[in-house]
Specification:
six-stranded parallel beta sheet, two-stranded parallel sheet, Rossmann fold
Length: 223
């Protein structure tokens, strides 16, 4: 994986390990001497704290960052219900604004060598009535890293997502195989098929492990 000013981390679905991969990538880059920061621009499933709504994934990214960031910088849109973000925003009377996210991203980019931006759910998750997370990645002009949960159906999900990423004009920098189930020949076969069919390198395979850490993921990612 070559260095650049940032990457957009997306996945084949929700709950496929985007945050774990983002944390691992941050540690890999930090080990190379890079000042790394991250964003979770839109998050659902926030919990009320004394400081306001906070999303656990965003807090993990804040803790892993090489630079100190205000929570509102890395997670400008946080909603309590664990539902699709545009629906949560509508219920809260808020419109998710890509320009606001872009401005926060630029604030963070000035402070760091590389910014990893983690999406919410999959590639085409709506942000508002007109725009999706794909539009956000295009606006930020970032190459994309695709996280694939290795399970039944992942071939279709991964290939369709990769096709949509390429058609958007974003570069597909690589993909990560996340083994969310114990090892099997079927899982190994799926990874082999995706290696053949995806037009980008596999950056690593995260072996099945409960309670994975950023270091564990970093060790699973290739140079």
């Amino acid at each position: 994986m070559t260095e650049c000013r940032g990457y957009f981390i997306t996945g084949t679905d929700t709950g496929v390990g985007k945050t774990a991969v983002t944390l691992g990538l941050m540690q890999v880059m930090q080990a190379r001497g890079c000042r790394v920061a991250a964003m979770k621009p839109v998050a659902s499933g926030g919990e009320m704290t004394a400081a306001g709504l906070r999303n656990n994934d965003a807090l993990l990214l804040q803790q892993q960052a090489s630079v100190e960031l205000d929570y509102a910088q890395l997670n400008p849109y946080c909603f309590a219900p664990p539902i699709a973000p545009h629906i949560a925003a509508e219920e809260a009377g808020v419109r998710i604004d890509i320009h606001k996210i872009y401005n926060k991203y630029n604030e963070i980019r000035i402070l760091s060598d590389c910014v990893l931006v983690e999406g919410a759910g999959g590639w085409q998750v709506p942000l508002n009535a007109e725009e999706t997370l794909a539009d956000l990645a295009v606006a930020l002009d970032l190459k994309v890293i695709l996280v694939v949960a290795i399970r039944l159906g992942c071939l279709n999900h991964a290939l369709l997502t990769a096709e949509s990423i390429i058609n958007s004009g974003c570069g597909l920098a690589g993909w990560v195989a996340n083994h969310i189930l114990p090892a099997s020949e079927a899982a190994a076969a799926n990874v082999r098929e995706l290696d053949l069919r995806l037009a980008c390198p596999r950056l690593g395979s995260i072996t099945y492990n409960e309670g994975i850490s950023a270091k564990f993921v970093a060790d699973c990612l290739s140079d």
